[in-house]
Specification:
196 residues, alpha+beta, disordered N terminus
Length: 196
């Protein structure tokens, strides 16, 4: 009986750490979320689905895409049990000042932050180029959020962050990152259990 349980756990762990080679648009599952995107590359790339990180008020689901040119895209879903500030203008300002602070620490050559739309949702998009030959494209948006009546303030429960690190010598890395962001779609599986 113990041997069967061991093999069942081993199989579940292997599935949760699944590494999948892809060359086109696919849908993957991280916890209760279905994630689809198309990085628009003919090269095979690898997806790592990390086990969920469960904390008292939030469960984090992380998916990493590794591309042959060295580009790495992290898709992180923060599923919170309590509302958090989802006001995009606030997130833009916080990120802007954080990026300015990071200039002195990580030596950004350039950095900017703007508002846009990702997956049909209002989003914050930040770009930075570092001295260490890497570019970063960071996006944040909420799958589930609600604005307060007669206010620009919003609260949300499910935040998505997409963090792309691109080697500066890559000829296609930023195109891959932009295509991923432009095509990403995330939704909770309709049959997922509460708190899953």
């Amino acid at each position: 009986m113990r041997l069967s349980a061991y093999f069942a756990l081993l199989i579940l762990f292997t599935i949760s750490m699944a590494t999948i080679a892809m060359a086109d648009s696919k849908t993957i599952t991280a916890g209760p979320y279905n994630i689809s995107f198309n990085p628009n590359t003919s090269e095979n790339y690898i997806i790592d689905i990390m086990p969920p990180l469960v904390e008292s008020n939030v469960t984090t689901y992380t998916t990493l895409a590794h591309f042959p040119d060295g580009t790495i895209s992290n898709i992180i879903i923060f599923d919170s049990k309590v509302p958090v500030d989802a006001t995009m203008e606030t997130l833009k300002q916080i990120t802007y000042w954080k990026e300015l602070y990071m200039v002195s620490i990580r030596e950004f050559l350039t950095a900017y932050v703007e508002l846009g739309t990702i997956d049909g949702k209002e989003a914050m998009i930040a770009y930075g180029e570092l001295n260490n030959s890497r570019k970063r494209l960071l996006c944040r948006y909420f799958l589930v959020s609600k604005k307060f009546e007669n206010s620009s303030v919003a609260a949300g429960y499910v935040e998505v962050q997409v963090v792309n690190m691109v080697p500066s010598n890559s000829t296609e890395g930023m195109d891959i990152a932009k295509s991923l962001i432009n095509t990403i779609h995330i939704e909770k599986a309709p049959n997922s259990l509460p708190g899953a």
